[in-house]
Amino acid sequence: MAQSATGRSIPIISPAEGVTEEMIRQLVETFYDRVIRDPELGPIFHRALSGRWSRHLALMVDFWSSIALRTGRYQGKPQAVHMGMDLTPELFARWLALFEQTAKEICEPDVAAFFVDRAGRIAESLQIGLGIGPKALRLP
Q1: Is the separation of the CB atoms in 100 and 16 below 8 Å?
Q2: Is 27 exposed, middle or buried (0-12, 13-18, 19+ CB in 10 A)?
Q3: Which of 91, 100, 135 is nearest to 120 (CA)?
Q4: Fewer beta carbons under 10 A from the terminal one: N or C of the chain?
Q5: Are the C-beta atoms of 126 and 92 separated by less than 8 Å?
Q6: What's the pLDDT tens digit per position in 105-128?
Q7: What is the pLDDT of residue 91?
Q8: Per residue, what are the HEC states of the chain?
Q9: For residues 116 and 103, is the Cβ–Cβ distance under 8 A?
Q10: Tens-digit pLDDT profile for residues 7-58
């Protein structure tokens, strides 16, 4: 169980209470609208997703639906997709800050805490897999 900001626990295995598909869609669309306009993140996303923006948004809705509602719709390989993008821990921190701000504006506090917790775990996992950040594996 994950502890929310209000002390209520949201189970990790079952669907997150209070999350809807519409909420996920609004969160994804609002967040990525901010990302694409961000001076640090925008250029990275423009390069990576040129001509595929709507497909990416749909994929991210599926991704978050799979995480929050356990729908199983997302079948991607996030580690592979993010390889070779010259990402840094600072860019992940910027991404997380925008995500947290957006989640807190769109969602009730418990639900926002759920999304922010999962986003932090995902960012950490991606960084480990990409070999960047303080927890990256440094093999000889």
Answers
A1: no
A2: buried
A3: 100
A4: C
A5: yes
A6: 999 999 999 999 999 999 999 998
A7: 94
A8: CEECCCCCEECCCCCCCCCCHHHHHHHHHHHHHHHHHCCCCHHHHHHHHCCCHHHHHHHHHHHHHHHHCCCCCCCCCHHHHHCCCCCCHHHHHHHHHHHHHHHHHHCCHHHHHHHHHHHHHHHHHHHHHHCCCCCCCCCC
A9: yes
A10: 555 555 556 788 999 999 999 999 999 999 999 999 999 888 888 889 999 9
Which has the closest alpha carbon to 107: 32, 4, 11, 33? 4
CA distance 62 to 25: 9
